[in-house]
Amino acid sequence: MSSDFVWRLLAAFACGVAIGLERQIRQRTAGLRTITLVACGAALFVTLGTLIGNGGNGGDGVTRIASYVVSGVGFLGGGVIMRDKGSIQGINTAATLWCSAAVGVLCGSGYYVPALAGTVLVLVTNTVLRDVSRMINSTPVSAADLVRQYVITVVCREEDEIHVRSILANPMSSAPLSFQSLMSRDVPDQPQRIEVTATLRLHPKDQSKLEHVAGRLSMEKGVSSVSWAGLDTEPTLE
Prior knowledge:
The protein is α+β, with helices and mostly antiparallel strands. The protein is built from eight helices and six strands. It is found in: Cell inner membrane; Cell membrane.
């Protein structure tokens, strides 16, 4: 049984190294050591179930331990997921951790071929499908079912504030821009200057309309600067 245990642990180690190398090369949060430890740890826990479960319910013990491994890896996955400026980072790394734990469970259970197949599948997903997803993201977004949030900022004279706000809010000139907010504030160190900030949501294919409005505002006599920026992109609701 000791030799079988060693082979299972070595298989989990090899699969963990294969998956972890790809993550380490891409400088992800969970790299070579973390993923290898997850795979080996999962194998150790499941192997423990086979060592102490030689009675009548060994299979039930292994299944129960495997479920605990899945729950434990869930906490690790939550630790590598971060929120940065409205976007979620690390979901793919968390999923890779989860899959490496599954590979470790298979190795610990003695299913070497399924474990190898799982390792190959994870590597293909993180390499080949990565390029495929980039190709899809680089295609024109005119048919994509999504919206994007934009912020346009206009600096103008105090006496032109109402005129600037009317241009932004005029449905005839700004359609199909969907304004979420329209705010004004004094410009620091620039007396008699007002900064008008508009937040809006629209489909990226309509971005040229936003550029048209910004260009029109920049030609106004009392406007000293116009700028706009695109923020996060999100799917539209069904």
